[in-house]
């Protein structure tokens, strides 16, 4: 193994006295505020997604458009395509700096969305809001670099799952903002949230000293972003365009070709924007796949839970609780709290049992929770049991991801490789969301104009597909990505020795 002292590319910039004292401290008021600020920044990414989905009917009515779905689509596209770029720039210029830059970009998006005089301006604003995706991996990557070594596993796990704790009240807050002040108010609120937490971050958290000097892989950025966009675009719009249409097929083939060209080019590039050799290390690949599944399947499940909870029983027939949007929080709160509890548990247990076993557990619980929903979703009690199990699984999978990535990479590789998690979540989320609606659409009926009800068989089959994908990911990890030493190296590698990483 090579240490950074032997490799000039891995040599960090000088460490400041403040960073040294921060790195060597235990839990202090400053460190607690630092972690809170990072968690709150990750919150902002989740908040704007929930707010946009909730405000969508108002936005569509205000601008008199039938293209409201593009607000969600363009944010996902921009986030997935830009994640590797933010990760690479973080390795070059510092993670805290890139967090602050992402806040500035997203802040501009919030301003455009809040003041948009036309729908196309709102679209541009949501493209810029895609920069918030970078917070999902830059925050825990910064934790790895500057937090005390013994606190890294816990803080990293809480940073990606602790966000749910604050979002318990988000549906109620969003409802009040929209009802009393209009849909634009949610963007103003999130802008203020970003500004305050960004200032706290600057005052409490030092910049990482880790740098990886290299030329920017401009061609790689263009190829990777272009390939991902070409694939996600038809996946997200395939139902409207027709899955067999020349446009969809042509874009999918073009995206695959562009990504294949990137793969060949990256293997010949000394410093690619997304290093495939590092990505295919077993702990890294399993972390990226498992964490991507935890993030994306949680989104899909909550979408399906909304259908189960908010559809009136007289229209759903064998399902439907007839809840209002406010009462729907009775379902989302247990799911969210279970995810938070699982994240904290992973942070406490990860050094004892290793992140791999906890990822296995998370994927297994996701499978079990989805299967319970398949067979029992006609009463609130049954739904609460299922969503609690699934929430625990999602939280465990998401919280295990940063620890597996940390275990499989050196400090200088962290930014670029952590971004692969955002890319994975975007791709899997777009594919799974489109897939479940494609499954449900043939069973849909319209009892009244503007009202669409999905059949129980369609929802059950979609839930079965979610369970199947989670289980296949678990099997893939156990059979093909299992640790050669039983995971002991991963436990020791939760905060790798300077400049080292676990072998493939």
UniProtKB/TrEMBL annotation:
Q: Sorted alphabetically, which Gene3D superfamilies does this protein's record hold?
A: MFS general substrate transporter like domains, Multidrug resistance protein D
Please tell me where this protein is predominantly located: membrane
InterPro entries the record matches: MFS, MFS_dom, MFS_trans_sf
> What is the topology of this protein in the membrane according to its UniProt annotation?
Multi-pass membrane protein
Q: Which residues form the Major facilitator superfamily (MFS) profile domain?
A: 32-485
Which domain of life, per UniProt?
A: Bacteria
This protein's UniProt keywords: Membrane, Transmembrane, Transmembrane helix, Transport
Q: What is this protein called?
A: MFS transporter
Per the UniProt record, the source organism is Streptomyces hyaluromycini
């Amino acid at each position: 193994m090579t240490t950074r002292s032997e490799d000039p590319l891995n040599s960090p910039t000088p460490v400041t006295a403040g960073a040294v004292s921060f790195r060597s401290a235990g839990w202090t008021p400053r460190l607690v505020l630092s972690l809170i600020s990072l968690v709150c920044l990750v919150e902002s990414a989740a908040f704007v997604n929930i707010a946009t989905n909730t405000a969508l009917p108002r936005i569509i009515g205000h601008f008199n458009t039938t293209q409201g779905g593009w607000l969600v689509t363009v944010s996902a596209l921009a986030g997935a395509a830009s994640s590797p770029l933010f990760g690479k720039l973080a390795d070059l210029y510092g993670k805290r700096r890139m967090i602050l830059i992402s806040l500035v970009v997203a802040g501009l998006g919030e301003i455009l969305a809040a003041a948009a005089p036309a729908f196309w301006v709102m679209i541009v604003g949501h493209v810029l809001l895609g920069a918030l995706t970078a917070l999902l991996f830059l925050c825990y990557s910064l934790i790895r670099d500057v937090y005390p070594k013994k606190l890294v596993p816990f803080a990293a796990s809480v940073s990606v799952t602790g966000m749910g704790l604050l979002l318990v009240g988000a549906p109620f807050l969003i409802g009040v903002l929209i009802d009393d002040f209009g849909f634009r108010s949610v963007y103003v609120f999130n802008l203020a949230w970003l500004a305050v937490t960004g200032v706290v971050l600057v005052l409490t958290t030092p910049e990482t000293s880790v740098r990886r000097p290299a030329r920017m892989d401009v061609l790689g950025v263009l190829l990777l972003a272009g390939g991902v966009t070409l694939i996600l675009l038809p996946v997200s719009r395939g139902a409207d365009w027709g899955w067999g249409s020349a446009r969809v097929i042509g874009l999918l083939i073009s995206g695959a070709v562009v990504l294949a060209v990137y793969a060949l080019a990256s293997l010949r590039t000394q410093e690619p924007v997304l290093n495939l050799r590092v990505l295919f290390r077993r702990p890294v690949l399993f972390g990226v796949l498992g964490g991507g599944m935890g993030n994306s399947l949680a989104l899909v499940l909550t979408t399906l839970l909304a259908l189960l909870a908010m559809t009136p029983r007289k229209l759903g027939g064998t399902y439907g609780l007839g809840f209002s949007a406010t009462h729907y929080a009775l379902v989302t709160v247990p799911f969210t709290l279970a995810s938070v509890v699982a994240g904290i548990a992973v942070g406490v247990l990860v050094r004892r049992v290793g992140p791999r076993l906890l990822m296995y557990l998370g994927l297994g619980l996701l499978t079990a929770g989805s299967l319970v929903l398949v067979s029992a979703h006609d009463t609130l009690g049954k739904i609460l049991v299922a969503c609690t199990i699934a929430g625990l699984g999602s939280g465990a999978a998401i919280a295990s991801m940063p620890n597996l990535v940390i275990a499989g990479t050196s400090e200088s590789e962290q930014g670029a490789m952590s971004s692969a998690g955002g890319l994975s979540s975007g791709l899997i989320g777009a594919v799974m969301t489109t897939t479940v609606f494609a499954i449900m659409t043939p069973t849909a009926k319209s009892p009244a104009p503007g009202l669409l009800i999905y059949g129980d068989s369609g929802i059950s089959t979609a839930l079965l597909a979610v369970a199947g994908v989670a289980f296949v990911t678990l099997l893939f990890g156990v059979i093909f990505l299992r640790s050669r030493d039983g995971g002991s190296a991963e436990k020791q590698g939760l905060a790798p020795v300077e400049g080292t990483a676990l072998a493939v």
